[in-house]
Structure to design on (303 residues):
């Protein structure tokens, strides 16, 4: 690998799986393997088996499914940002609703990208179906299943992605081409000040992941690239893909997995919508799980 520049061209990345997704995002390396979603189809998928095997469907919802995180202490339950809020998903069972913070929004809204922080809370953005300016928000799902709006005035939120200690959160507003660095109290989860981390002029920053050196990998929609930015915001590496719309990224050790999308393309190419993999020098960490603590009913509720 050179000290800077491209680490892989289109001929160096692999897409052995036959699947082509409409809007592949929310890819995560979890303690249950690599999972991802096809957002608008409401599908939760597992990238397991042999490298060339089709993706395996774990669950399907009748609404958009933005992203999931494993629920700690369970073997097969996931927390999901889906529809207008949050639910628990266990394959083979009906979803369990936790909160619908966008149910009564003036414009029709849906949940988008999401992730769990190192303290076990779940964070997810919302957006309008037509990407109306400033219509979206960022929510935090606390351990008791309560949803709290922590930021608003976002058009298309993507990420978020957290540093190892949970005191920095990266969040993209894809429509504005900007990624901001937000400072977070990892104990209280209060969001403090923020600053611009990266501005993208030639595309839209989308899904992100932080590696063990604190650098941020960002899928840049519309450019066919995934870019690694150092903690000071300098561009360090670029992966080039034979697909125009990279949407999500995760690191499974030193394997960088990249989801792409076909949605919106008049003439999608053969690899648009594929899941790609490329080996990188700096690995990532396994994704955090959501810690859910069942609320204790009050005496009045119990009676």
């Amino acid at each position: 690998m050179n000290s800077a520049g491209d680490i892989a061209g289109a001929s160096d990345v692999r897409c052995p799986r036959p699947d082509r997704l409409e809007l592949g995002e929310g890819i995560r390396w979890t303690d249950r393997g690599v999972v991802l979603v096809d957002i608008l189809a409401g599908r939760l998928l597992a990238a397991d088996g042999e490298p060339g095997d089709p993706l395996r469907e774990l669950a399907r919802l009748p609404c958009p499914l933005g992203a999931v995180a494993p629920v700690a202490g369970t073997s097969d339950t996931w927390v999901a940002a889906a529809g207008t809020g949050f639910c628990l998903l266990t394959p083979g069972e009906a979803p369990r609703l936790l909160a619908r913070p966008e149910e009564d929004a003036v414009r029709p809204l849906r949940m988008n990208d999401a992730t769990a922080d190192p303290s076990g809370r779940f964070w997810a953005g919302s957006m309008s179906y037509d990407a109306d300016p400033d219509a979206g928000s960022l929510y935090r799902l606390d351990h008791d299943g309560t949803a709290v709006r922590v930021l608003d005035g976002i058009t298309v939120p993507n990420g978020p992605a957290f540093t190892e200690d949970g005191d920095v959160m990266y969040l993209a507003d894809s429509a504005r081409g900007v990624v901001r660095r937000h400072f977070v109290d990892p104990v209280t989860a209060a969001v403090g000040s923020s600053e611009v981390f990266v501005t993208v002029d030639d595309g839209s920053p989308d899904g992100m992941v932080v590696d063990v050196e604190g650098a941020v990998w960002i899928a840049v929609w519309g450019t066919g690239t995934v870019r690694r930015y150092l903690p000071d915001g300098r561009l360090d590496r670029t992966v080039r893909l034979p697909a125009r719309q990279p949407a999500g990224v995760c690191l499974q050790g030193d394997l960088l997995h990249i989801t792409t999308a076909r949605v919106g393309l008049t003439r999608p190419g053969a690899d648009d919508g594929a899941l790609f993999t490329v080996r990188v020098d700096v690995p990532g960490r396994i994704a955090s799980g959501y810690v859910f603590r069942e609320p204790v009913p009050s005496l009045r509720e119990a009676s």
